[in-house]
Amino acid sequence: MPIQxxxxxxxxxxxxxxxxxxxxxxxxxxxxxxxxxxxxxxQIASQVASQDTLLLVNRVLDGHFTxxxxxxxxxxxxxxxxxxxxxxxxxxxxxxxxxxxxxxxxPGFGKSDMNSPQTVDRLRxxxxx
Length: 129
Fold this sequence. Notes:
The protein has 5 helices and 5 strands. Helices cover about 40% and strands about 20% of the residues. The protein has a 5-stranded parallel beta sheet, sandwiched between helices. The radius of gyration is 13 Å and the shape is globular.
């Protein structure tokens, strides 16, 4: 199923702008959402059609999420739900990427590699279904 929405979870304004441009380049018809609080995330994640939403989760969450929760903790929590959106961690740290995949995410990418051919290809495959 092609991705209809890309949710930027826990990103600051600067990173959200860069990620929005990348998402719009790869999925020009997809809606890009900024999610910076638990309530908005729960609303998106609970929808039956959540498979059409890609969650790009920041390693260090910016916003109002469960106290002390990291992006990896958030991925682990979401992976336990009945309807799970595809998730990718946005982090430059290889160990964090490994932990995120073990927690239930697809292989993600780092902010420094955001525009690399490998990242663009990885995102394109997820977005196109």
